[in-house]
Write a structure and sequence with these properties.
LysM; LysM domain-containing protein; alpha+beta
């Protein structure tokens, strides 16, 4: 009678090792012949099926799970035959590990398309039509702090809508959707947030006042990056364009306006670094 030992926590009869395929044993098969046919060490095959290296426990599985009915000539072990029911063992699939493919040279990182900075605006309104002029220095928000790209831009044009008064004040500028500053040349303005007394982001823009009149240190640049990312999120700015947001109470005079603004953007200087 084959030597058997019941495992402490036996695997269920329907256990299938991961990444394996079933094999129906037949007359003439044994562990060594099946392992050789699949180009693997014999104990790798056995352990994959039963998670044990104890021959007595393997014999228990061969009778209980494979359904072997014939023993070896010495009577110590079960052997494979076509009469075993269900007669199934599992062959683990070989996983070929290949080293990662490398491409010589440097793969350029995708450039950020978000810019922001501070500017100074002078605008005056008649009742229906007015003029506006803005100069600002903006920075690429996604650049590494050691190589921050910057650009000076000017927006000069007209705006339509009811207005009253005049103002000279600080303006927060966001340019969204441009990898390079030169791409902003000739861009026309759209619906403006230009309300010097109140804006949709009034509370947020008051935080911009902490930057002062210019972004002239790395700490201010990091704060600008944080505030810009929050402005994009809170205002839902997804469309490509150049946006101007007057900073509440940062100017002189009273300027209430609402309407459509247009004017060409001109980039007249580019550089690198803060400031």
């Amino acid at each position: 009678m084959p030597i058997e030992k019941r495992p402490k926590n036996p695997l269920p009869k329907n256990y299938k090792p991961p990444n394996s395929t079933p094999y129906k044993v037949r007359d003439g098969d044994n562990w060594w012949s099946v392992a050789k046919a699949n180009n693997m060490p014999v104990w790798d095959l056995i352990v994959a099926n039963y998670k044990t290296r104890n021959p007595a426990e393997v014999n228990w599985y061969l009778r209980e799970n494979v359904g072997c009915v014939q023993s070896t000539r010495d009577g110590n072990n079960w052997t494979f035959t076509s009469r075993a029911n269900p007669g199934i063992i599992h062959i683990p699939l070989r996983v070929i590990k290949t080293p990662p493919m490398t491409i010589p040279g440097n793969v350029p990182a995708k450039k950020s398309t978000l810019w922001a900075g501070l500017g100074k605006s002078h605008s005056g309104d008649l009742f229906v039509i007015g003029a506006h002029d803005l100069t600002a220095k903006i920075y690429n928000i996604g650049d590494d702090t050691s190589k921050v790209r910057n650009a000076w831009l000017n927006i000069n044009g007209f705006k339509f809508g009811p207005g009253l008064g005049a103002s000279i004040g600080a303006v927060f500028v966001i340019a969204h959707g441009y990898e390079n500053a030169a791409q902003m040349n000739g861009v026309s303005g759209g619906w403006d947030f230009d309300l010097a007394i109140y804006t949709k982001l009034g509370d947020f823009l008051k935080g911009i006042k902490g930057l002062g009149k210019a972004v002239d240190t790395l700490d201010k640049f990091k704060k600008l990056r944080y505030l810009t990312e929050n402005a994009i999120k809170n205002a839902g700015i997804t469309k490509k364009g150049v946006y101007t947001l007057p900073i509440p109470f940062a100017g002189a005079g009273i300027h209430i306006w609402g309407g459509y603004k247009f004017g060409d953007v001109s980039v007249f200087s580019t550089g690198e670094g803060v400031p």
